[in-house]
Input
Amino acid sequence: MTEPVDQYRAARAQKVARLRELGADPFGTIFAPTGSIVAAREFAPAQVDGDVQPRGPEVRLAGRIGNLRKAGGKLFFATLYDRSRGEAYQAQRLAGVADLDDAEAKKARGIQLYLELGALGPEQWEVVKALDLADWVGVEGAVGRTRTGEVSVFVARLTVLG
Output
């Protein structure tokens, strides 16, 4: 009988092999973010009426994937967190936020990634499909809002960091 630890190691080894096959370094590379996720959220333009929302400046962010969900065949959403998450939590606590586990309070501590096949291209799309929760990634793209108003980075480039 296979031990559970062996099953996890085997799955991780398969993932490493798949990322290498796709040309991504599974153990990271040098990536210089332009700032923190909490700071990047401030760059999002105000929401306007209509489906097309304005985009803010380009950012480079690095962090850990805390949520990953497929939305059709050509779109993924993910939530990215970095070290500023803890600082934001403390600021919310000191400000007297009643429910720190509330969905809105949690949103302010991370940023949504909008990962679209058309923006990333087929090679990077295969890397996106190989991602798992808790993977470390670097992303480059414009900060903006989805048509539902969610602050997001519209990812143009993704780098696996570990």
In short: The domain at 4-160 is CATH 2.40.50.140 (OB fold (Dihydrolipoamide Acetyltransferase, E2P)). The chain has a mean pLDDT of 87. The chain has one domain: 4-160.
